[in-house]
Structure prediction request, 322 residues.
Amino acid sequence: MPNASRTWTPDSIPDQSGRLVVVTGANSGIGQVTAQALARRGAHVVLACRSPQRGQAALDRLLAQAPGVHAEVRLLDLADLASVRAFADGWDHGRLDLLVNNAGVAIVPFARTADGFESQFGINHLGTFALTGLMMPHLLASPDPRVVTVSSEGQRFARFDLDNLSAERRYHAMFTYLQSKRANLYFATELQRRADAAGLRLRSTAVAPGLTRTNVLTGGANGNRGRLYGALTRLLLRVAFRPTPEGAKTSLYAATVPDIPGGAYVVPGGPLQLRGEPVLRNRERAIRDTATARRLWELSEELTGVSFRLSGDAACPTQESY
Prediction:
């Protein structure tokens, strides 16, 4: 597998027919572009969205642009573990070939999830952790299961504090965001180590999109920060950030390149991982820090009540074809 992919574009995505995919946060931004690209290449895509209205609007846009694609909307709120469990309990497709853990929040004012966790840690990491664990039997029913988890280039600057994961002592929006994105990378690599130890075919990868123009800094909880914040942030996004399809490249690369290795971390190849074409990077400190990743995993199981069934007999017995 080459470390760089200068000629790779979304047009390079192979046929995805017969593949069953879930993309979280697929109603806007990188998630929407990822879902659209996979559906256009033939996958049956489930848009897992917090808002039924915004999810349906995204589906309507997709069907208008590409009539005949196979896609649907399902409710999923990563800020509520009951919603995560309801999504998994309601899964009626048998297997799941690809889970793209895309949804998240960024640098938001302090808030708690429905389960009492600080919102960035609760949504970005714990919700993602719980969803992946609860969907694991369906993933293991696939002949070639993949999990793609969207981290951030900013995770390199996180000061990871296992004693302050949910703002138990203090809250700083940027620090907590970067810590949650480091948690995403810890999770993706630890999942691969555990899958390898169990002898499973599962491939878990993490990606960083680079500076990308989405509504994560202006929508949701950030939408209430006032006119000045909104105006300045939109100006920054327009001037310094690249278009959303560029940011989705790393997710699509990790999701579709046939021979990508499990445990890979896909980032933009330019300076500071802020822009450029997808490349594999294996020199991140978090990838080598197995002790912290293991402890985070154990804490996440305790906090969510979700334990991963990483064995061949955990697979669902039924599979459907698309």
Notes: The radius of gyration is 18 Å. Residues 316-322 have pLDDT under 50 and may be disordered. The CA atoms of residues 259 and 278 lie 14 Å apart. The first strand starts at residue 20 and ends at 24.
